[in-house]
Amino acid sequence: MTQKIAAGVTNLKLKFAGEDALLFKGVSLAFRPGEHALLLGPSGCGKSTLLQVLSGLIPGSIEVPMIADEVIVPERWGYVFQDPDTQFCMPYVDEELAFVLENLQVPREDMPARIERHLRQVGLSLPDSHVPIQTLSQGMKQRLAIASALATEPEVLFLDEPTALLDEEGTEQVWQTIRSLADGMTLIVVEHKIEGIIDLFDRIVVIGPAGEVVADGAAREVISLRKKELDRYGVWYPGIWDDRPSLRRSPLPAPDVPPLLAMERYRGLRGSVVVIEAEQADVYPGDWIGIMGDNGAGKSSLLLAIMRLIKTEGVCEVAGRELKKVEHLAEHAAFVFQNPELQFVTHSVRDEIEYSLAVDGVPLEERRARSADLMDALQLLESADRHPYQLSMGQKRRLSVASAIIRGQRLLLLDEPTFGLDARNTFAMLDLLERLRAEGMAIVMVTHDPRIVERYCTKLWRVREGRLTHAIDVSTPANMAASR
Amino acid sequence: MQLTFPHRRTWLHRVNPVVKLVLFSLWFFAIILIHDFSVMINVAIGSVLLLIWSGHPWKRLLLYASPFLLVFVSSTTGMMFFGSGETPWFKWGIVNITEESFYRGLHLGFRALSMAAVGLLFGLTTRPVDLFYALMQKAKLPPKYAYSFLAAMRMIPILVEEFQTLRHALKIRGMKKQGKLMTIYRTWHRYAIPLLAQSIRRAHRIAVAMEAKRFAGGAKRTYYYIIGFTYRDIAFAALTAVLFAASFAAGIQWPYIADITDVR
């Protein structure tokens, strides 16, 4: 007797339009009912695509040329996507769940009770479910996404990197929710932040860069046997931070040089509301400041205020001078936005890096030389003529840093430069920043990850409810621990 | 960013959106046909008075209405200053105010004011969700269009935020010095491409997510909100009729200015 299969595919061949090579060349996988499976692999290996094939979204909703000997699509399945902001079509929580129920032709009378039940299942205890979705935190939105997947009463739950765009707290909440649902449910999950969730899975499938199954077996076994591949693929496997070669925490810079950035009773305003306030704070050459705080506490506003992109009051000197105009500040301070695509203004990687130099009127030859050096250092040289949008996420982030710092500014402001990156690209970014810092640049960076602050930063700034409350020297581990 | 502001729900919010849509369209059409000055003023006063039931405080209403007040002033003065007429009042350069053009200008202004008030009232008392549910249930609008609109509306705040970020980014990165026309063209280009690229990708993702939630454009469905007809719809239709009838009767019986009736 053959075993029952919840979802599976035999001899899958699939190719994306415009690309020459097949993404999958005959992949076969089958999942038992009740199985908890985790798919791991480098970005671009086709994990998400595989999930979409198994759910029938390919070729049902997304047209991709594919053939397979057999595809077993579960009868009832739910799907949770990565981005909390692009999976809802209604403005209110109850309406979004109702949308799913309407699609399934659930009678109106049953809807309020069902909505209530699904929200309870994911631990979203709202006093009234008629709440605007945009007022929820990202972690709550992802739990709402799970609730709407549950509304389809699924046998199989597909989760496509459900926590990739969440902070630590949100990630925690989402996995807690998934754990509570796991009993009896078939879970097929793509994720690369897997620390602390391995015990949830009884099977791990590792997919290689060429779309082939590299390993398939019991979770613990795969993790311990395939560490090297996982590291190469950029997976955040458990203990990855301890495996990093060395924690290079250089000593604090000598404070006998004047500060690059000095704030005193500095405030940033939106309209007439003070959104961020800093009593007194300095940044010296060689400093690496990590700004941490809750969502909406004012971390990004602090960066915007330093760059004078919002209205400000008080004193903020950059390179010893009070510069009030963004154009003048931009000569001394580089700024990197969270979404690199919104700061790209040209059509090739080379032009993008050279852009600011061209604005300054630097001659072509010098521009070419400087951009070539920088591209070489950031492994962007072979993509020099590609459109910035065609790069991978990690490359886009590196390009956004390169194009920001080309003028040789000594102060670098970054808004979550490692957000949503896999391990490989995160470490590439951190190594780049450390190199810049060692050359005497000062870095001020918003981040959600305490491990980055612990291992790389010289100082931690805590932002709480619109105030910069603490500036803590974290160059020794004891201080970091005390700051929590 | 938020697109809706807290407000009181009034009975007008509960009038069936389709009824409101039809009545307000008729309203637009009717005021184009009014040529009697006094009747026009009466209808305009009536339209503005209806705003009592918008559920929003007066201060905010004034803010929302400010662009329409500008329309009132510009359409009034445009007609007043440069219109032709037989009884000249004032002449200065090309400005030529006559008695006829003065009243015609005011008439036009009140027409614009009435349209603005009614349009504003519709916008303020109708939730998009209710409107599209009503259109699906009462006007046979296919769900695929209704939900596309609703999904698109969710993207507006995100778009505004991205626009803001783009503005910041362009400020920081600076602009090449070029001719004025070129600069306008480039600026437009620089905003349009990233915003479009982000939006198209987002729209694609939302569409797939909707299908993953078993949405099928043409399939049968049940509804969370039943938007039926109630006595309020009749009350509202009656109110509209009374308002017009009273405006006409009063306007013809007691004109504001004795010899000014038809302003054509």
From TrEMBL, chain A:
Q: What are the subcellular locations of this protein?
A: Cell membrane
Task: Spell out the CDD domains in the cross-references.
Answer: ABC_cobalt_CbiO_domain1
Q: How does it sit in the membrane?
A: Peripheral membrane protein
Q: Which GO terms describe its molecular function?
A: ATP binding; ATP hydrolysis activity; ATPase-coupled transmembrane transporter activity
An example of a Gene Ontology cellular component annotation for this protein is: ATP-binding cassette (ABC) transporter complex
Checking InterPro entries in the record gives: AAA+_ATPase, ABC_transporter-like_ATP-bd, ABC_transporter-like_CS, ABC_transpr_CbiO/EcfA_su, ECF_ABC_transporter_ATP-bd, P-loop_NTPase
Domain ABC transporter as annotated: residue spans: 9-235, 260-482
Taxonomically, the superkingdom here is Bacteria
Q: Which UniProt keywords apply?
A: ATP-binding, Cell membrane, Membrane, Nucleotide-binding, Translocase, Transport
In terms of one coarse class, where is the protein primarily found? membrane
**A Pfam entry, by short name:** ABC_tran
Q: Which PANTHER family match?
A: HEAVY METAL TRANSPORTER
Assigned protein family = Belongs to the ABC transporter superfamily.
Q: Which named protein is this? A: ATP-binding cassette domain-containing protein
Lineage, highest ranks first: Bacteria, Bacillati, Bacillota, Bacilli, Bacillales
UniProtKB/TrEMBL annotation, chain B:
| CDD domains according to UniProt | EcfT
Record keywords: Membrane, Transmembrane, Transmembrane helix
From the Swiss-Prot or TrEMBL record, state where the protein is found: Membrane
Query: What's any one GO cellular component for it?
Result: plasma membrane
**Record protein name field:** Energy-coupling factor transporter transmembrane protein EcfT
Q: What is the lineage of its organism?
A: Bacteria, Bacillati, Bacillota, Bacilli, Bacillales
Q: Membrane-crossing residues? A: 21-52, 64-84, 105-125, 234-257
Record has Repeat as a keyword = no
User: How is it placed in the membrane, per its record?
Assistant: Multi-pass membrane protein
The record's Pfam families line, in alphabetical order, gives:
CbiQ
